[in-house]
Design goal:
It is a single chain. The chain is of the alpha+beta class. The protein has helices spanning 2-10, 12-41, 91-94, 144-189, 194-222, 255-271, 284-315, 320-332, 337-360, 375-400, 403-411, 416-445, 480-490, 494-529, and strands spanning 49-54, 59-69, 82-87, 98-102, 106-110, 115-120, 126-135, 138-142, 225-230, 236-240, 244-248, 274-275, 280-281. Helix 9 (337-360) packs across helix 10 (375-400), helix 11 runs antiparallel to helix 12 and helix 13 (480-490) packs antiparallel against helix 14.
């Protein structure tokens, strides 16, 4: 008993419990990250296509995506039976992307060399065998081999055609359309210039009509080449090569080919626009929106937080009022984020944005410009949400600066402002950056306040582009966190969207780590420079 009392008195059990708790937490975090990484990064690896002939005569062709034991609840010691999950694609023909198959029902398995995997604009991938490739009424490839040889160069041509059509739609037609809209608004604002503005509008409308005709001709010309594919059940599907983004014979790829295809898919994921209700293609608009929002949020939260901390620590008379302010700031950090979103909606969007519209954009009403959700209001809302974190961290950093440094500066004749600007703030910079790291980590992962202050499911126009005034703070934007929620929980095809959820989660983790790593590197350099700081 005395040994047990000595053990408790020394606090050893508490140390063991604390160590065990830390180990469990690290294990859970590591497991979560490992699950996300394996599921997310494996999404881009091209698998082989397997053809299954079932005992009832049904033939299936697809990519094997899972295998598990069939649950048999209540059965007395059953033998394990397995089923496999096939990614069939061909959603427009089969009605679903995936199908579970009982292994006991499989009569034969094969991996056909001529099976092709086509990534297309709609309805997911098309899996089957090439029947023929045509250019208008002329057949340029018949059968699996010649058809594939004719299809390969057309896929590259389709990519060039899509780029040309996209430039025509977004740049040329978009610029003319914006000019017509500007003329309409100018006419509404200045009726006296009606004659001149109507002439400009008529000229722009003529240009718009010509560009539309050119777009139609270019699209029609690009859609002349078509490919016909026979799917596993014998049906044939005909589609324009313009709608095919990528094509490969999955069972003839070498490891090097698969690695190249993996890199190509990964690059498309990082740099491309979304397709198929965000379940395929890339997520570049969401990456751009997330980074821009974090930068704007940091630009708001850090200056306000540092100034507030400076006043509380260096200038405010310490007393009951300052203690109440500190308690309020600490409590503000615990307010649910959706409350900040409601505040941002009411104050920033309805009050501030509505006032700006009345004062500067009255000719556009009732269509709001700033009186609706946008990246500016979302960033300001998240700035308010994270500013308490910055205040607390900055105030602690300022308190950690040794008093002797202040006294030495004042003794040389420097004013208090000069001492704060040139001695205290640089020495406290590592601690302030700690607050910035915490703020960025929280801001990048928040979704709830963004859903009512500016984020949307799809926003093809970025907040920053080449159109005057170049920075469009009123525009809605995409965000990685909301993208995960939307694809994972709002998609009608949850099974097909699951890999995209993991891949986006991996990317969000990487971006948060990179942002934090950048701040940590800067903090380390400052810490080496000002060794007296406690942070």
């Amino acid at each position: 008993m005395s040994a047990l009392r000595d053990l408790i008195r020394r606090g050893d059990p508490a140390i063991w419990l604390a160590g065990t708790g830390l180990g469990v937490c690290l294990l859970m975090i590591s497991g979560m990250i490992a699950l996300i990484l394996t599921s997310g990064l494996g999404y881009f690896w091209p698998g082989r296509l397997i053809e299954l002939t079932l005992k009832n005569g049904t033939v299936l062709l697809g990519e094997m995506s899972g295998r598990e034991i069939i649950p048999t609840p209540g059965a007395p010691e059953p033998l394990p039976r397995f089923r496999i999950q096939l990614k069939l694609g061909n959603r427009d023909l089969f009605g679903a992307d995936y199908r579970w198959v009982d292994e006991a029902e499989i009569e034969a398995r094969a991996w056909p060399a001529d099976a092709v995997y086509l990534e297309r604009r709609e309805y997911g991938p098309l899996l089957g065998r090439v029947v023929k490739v045509t250019d208008g009424d002329r057949t340029i490839g018949q059968g699996a081999g010649p058809g594939w040889d004719a299809l390969v160069p057309l896929i590259d041509k389709a990519e060039r055609d899509r780029a040309a059509i996209r430039r025509l739609e977004r740049d040329e037609i978009g610029a003319v359309d914006a000019g017509i809209e500007q003329a309409r608004l100018a006419l509404k604002k200045d009726p006296a210039a009606r004659e001149r503005l109507e002439r400009e509008t008529a000229a722009l409308t003529g240009q718009y009509t010509l560009l539309e005709q050119r777009l139609g001709q270019q699209t029609e010309e690009a859609a002349r080449t078509r490919v016909t594919v026979k799917v596993a059940d014998g049906r044939e599907k005909d589609l324009a090569t313009l709608d095919v983004f990528r094509a490969y014979r999955a069972n003839q790829l070498t490891r090097i080919d698969r690695a190249r295809l993996y890199a190509s898919r990964l690059w498309e994921f990082l740099s491309g626009d979304p397709r198929e209700s965000n379940t395929e293609g890339g997520i570049f608009p969401a990456i751009f929106g997330t980074l821009m929002m974090v930068l704007l949020m940091s630009g708001v939260a850090v200056p306000f937080g540092v100034v507030a901390a400076l006043y509380l620590r260096e200038y405010a008379k310490q007393g009951l009022l300052v203690r109440i302010v500190r308690i309020a700031v600490n409590n503000l950090a615990g307010v649910p984020s959706i409350v900040f979103g409601v505040f941002g909606l009411g104050f920033f969007i309805y009050f501030v944005g509505g006032t700006i519209d009345q004062m500067f954009y009255a000719e556009r009403l009732p269509t709001p410009t700033f009186g609706t959700g946008g990246i500016l209001w979302a960033s300001l809302t998240l700035g308010l949400l994270t500013v308490p974190v910055v205040i607390v961290a900055a105030e602690e950093a300022l308190a950690a600066v040794p008093r002797s440094m202040r006294e030495a500066s004042l003794a040389t004749g420097a004013t208090k402002f000069q001492t704060i600007l040139r001695v205290v703030l640089p020495a406290a910079a590592p601690g302030i950056l700690t607050g910035l790291i915490l703020a960025m980590a929280r801001g990048a992962g928040e979704v709830a306040p963004l859903m009512i202050t500016g984020v949307v499911k799809l926003a093809p126009d970025l907040p920053l582009d080449g159109t005057f005034p170049f920075l469009h703070l009123e525009r809605k934007f995409m965000h990685l966190g909301f993208h995960i929620y939307d694809v994972g929980f709002q998609s009608p095809n949850v099974e097909a969207a699951k890999p995209m959820v993991y891949a986006t989660a991996v990317l969000l983790l990487v971006i948060v780590v990179l942002l934090n790593l950048t701040a940590i590197i800067v903090r380390t350099k400052l810490r080496r420079k000002y060794q007296t700081s406690a942070f």
